[in-house]
Structures are given as C-alpha cells and as structure tokens.
Amino acid sequence: MPGTALPAFPDDVPIHSLPTIDFGLVKADNPAEIDRLWEAAVTLGFWYLKNHGAEQEAKAMFELGAETFALPLEEKLNYEQGDSGRSFGYKKMGGNAVDASGLPDMTEFLNVAKDDALAFPEVVHRTYPPVVTAAIPSVVRPFVCKSLEVNITILRVFTRRLGLPEGTLEQLHARDLPSGSEARVTRTPPMPGKDTADRPAIGAHTDFGSLAFLHNILGGLQVLLPGQTQWGYVKPIPGHAICNVGDALAVFSGGILKSTVHRVVPPPGAQGEHERWSLVFHTRPSDARMLRALVEDSSVIAESARQYPEGKFETGSTVAEWYARRTKYQRLGNREGPQSWAASRGTEHNPTAR
Questions:
Q1: Where is 156: in which H helix or E strand?
Q2: Among 40, 42, 125, 195, which residue's CB has the most CB atoms within a 10 Å radius?
Q3: Buried b (16+ CB within 10 A) or exposed e, 258-294
C-alpha cells in the first residue's frame, strides 16, 4: 500500500524520456518554460511536472484510497458506477474491457466528481462510501482545488498560444458548471512474473477529457508517442507529476494539441510483486459544450483543421455525450462483441504497436 518501501524502477526496460516542466516557472510566465511546455503539448502530448505543490494533497488521497479499498467488496459495490455511462463512483476489478476481445481490466478505482467535492455537503451527482464522504472537506476538496489550479494555469497558456480570446479555454472548463472532471485513485494487485508482463491492466486509450494531472507510485504506465510503434514506460520520478493532453483539447485545437495513446501494464521487474497505486485528476470541459474545433475563434486553429479531412473535428456530440459513450461501451456489462470496444474509442489512431 502507499508508503511502504518499494523496489527501484529497473534500468533494463524501454522508457520514453519526457521533458520536465517547472510549474513554478510556468505560473510566473517564464517565456522559456512556457515555450518548453507548448513544445511538449504539441509534439508528445505528455510531460513531467515538478514544483506543482500538490505532494501533501496527493499523499492524503492515497491514504484515503487505501482506507476505501480495504472495505468489504459488498460495501464498495453499493457505490458501483454501473453500466449507464456514468463514471463517478466505485469500479470493481474486471468491470471494463481492455481490448476488442473483451479481456477484463485488472484495476479497482474510485472516481469522485469535482462537482460533488466543491459543492459538499450538497450532492450534485451521487453519494460515496461514508469514509470518502467524511474526507471530502479535508482530503478530496483540497486535492481537487490544487489540481484545478495546475490545470487551469496550463489551459491559460494554451489559450494564448492557440490565438484564442483571453479566457476561452477557462470558460469551456467553468468551475461552477457540471462536468465530468473527477479525482480518481486506482489500485492494481501484484502481477509478478514474465507471464503477465505485457497483460494490460488498463487498455490502450486516449484520455476522454482535456488535461490529466497524474501521480504514480510504481511504474506500469506506457505511452506510444506520435510517430512511434513501440511502447515505452514512463518512469515515475519522486515529486514529479505526469501530465497529458486528452481528446477534448485535441478536438478544440483542431489537432494542434496531441492526445497520445497510453496504457497501464504490470510494473516492471521486482516492482510487479507489489500493488500499484495511482492518483489522477481529469479536467474535462463543461457537459453542455459541443465538442468541435474552435475554428471561428482562432485563425491558428482554423488553419490547422484545414490540414485534416473535412469533418474530423466535428464530433456531433456534446462533451457529456462523448464521455458517456466512451465510458458505457468499455463496460463489460454492455459488451456485445468487438463493436462495443470500437464504440468506446476516442481519437486513437489505431497504431501498430509492439
């Protein structure tokens, strides 16, 4: 569980070296650091983030996750997210598919809605296990607020670089409007040995929303960077978060910002003998927004969108519809065959990976 002594990440596995961005410098509008953040977002879609100031909030969330997942399964299932396309709540291990064959996932997680955390004690979306409810003011809300500070700061940078009117992306992610933004803590059981080394715990995907602010305790996250055909691990670095762009920003920007395919496999080497824990805050646009390129608001985006097939960034969906479809059809309870997996996909480009 979080806080125990763990083996080092091995040095004999393929890794992708990501740029490290200093959030303190970004927040201070340092031109060189903002250039580096922008370059990472438009080429890789992934980067490390240091000096983000969320270490204590993340530690408290991991401790809450451990307390929650120690509850009896029958109690946790009272808060299961279900098969309707709703994300918030508990997801049992094996509830989702990880590929078109219907192979079940190997994680349990708990999603707490941004809206429920900020409105507490009012219930906006749903209730949670009592241990979580009691911790919303002291644990969940501080993590949500810190994560929003980080991600909204980054969205402001992107607004300027995309040539959008000031405040555009921030308004699309309005703090006080309903959205799918959520804090998620995830536990994966030990999966030691070579037989499970490439067995996905979470299948290859692009993220549903706009920005992810991720904290990992062990390895296991792999990315398939644009233009590459081989998966590489993202090595956890103490004190560093891992951030990435999701589908919504890729669409809003007309393909300028990159939503990169990634997955989770068992931690490599001796780390595979231990539970894997992760914590993420997903910033997603407000539910009612249409998910389409902002071509009327930026000549930069309009020019980029023209380089792609007509209609590529016209999803015909609201953000809520896009998110619910992706959530619903990866649930094994809704599986009718490989077409269900296809229906759960986002902007993935169906790469050939090895």
A1: helix 141-161
A2: 40
A3: bbbbbbbbbbbbebbebbbbbbbbbbbbbbebebbbb
Task: Yes or no: say if 128 and 79 are a contact pair by the CB < 8 Å rule.
Answer: yes
The Cα–Cα gap between 93 and 84 comes to 17
pTM of the model: 0.95
Spatial contact of 202 and 278, defined as CB atoms under 8 Å apart: no
Collapsing DSSP to helix, strand or coil, 337 comes out as coil
How far is residue 182's CA from residue 141's CA, in Å, rounded to a whole number? Answer: 11
Cβ neighbours around 307 below 10 Å, total:
10
Give me the phi and psi of 161, to 5 degrees please: -70, -25
Q: What is the CA radius of gyration of the chain?
A: 19
How many whole angstroms separate alpha carbon 135 and alpha carbon 218?
25
Number of H helices and E strands in the chain, helices first, is: 12, 14
Rounded to a whole number of angstroms, the distance between the first and last alpha carbons of the chain is 31
Nearest to 186 by CA among 262, 96, 279: 279
Residue 353: strand, helix, or coil: coil
Q: One digit per residue, pLDDT tens: the chain, 354 residues?
A: 565 688 999 999 999 999 999 999 999 999 999 999 999 999 999 999 999 999 999 999 999 999 999 999 999 999 999 999 999 999 999 999 999 999 999 999 999 999 999 999 999 999 999 999 999 999 999 999 999 999 999 999 999 999 999 999 999 999 999 999 999 999 999 987 766 667 889 999 999 999 999 999 899 999 998 888 899 999 999 999 999 999 999 999 999 999 999 999 999 989 999 999 999 999 999 999 999 999 999 999 999 999 999 999 999 999 999 999 999 999 999 999 999 999 999 887 443 333
Q: Quick one: which of 149, 159, 153, 151 has its CA closest to 257?
A: 159
Task: Dig out the tokens for 238 from the structure.
Answer: 């103490």
Quickly list DSSP for 44-83.
Answer: TSEEEEES-S-HHHHHHHHHHHHHHHTS-HHHHGGGB--S
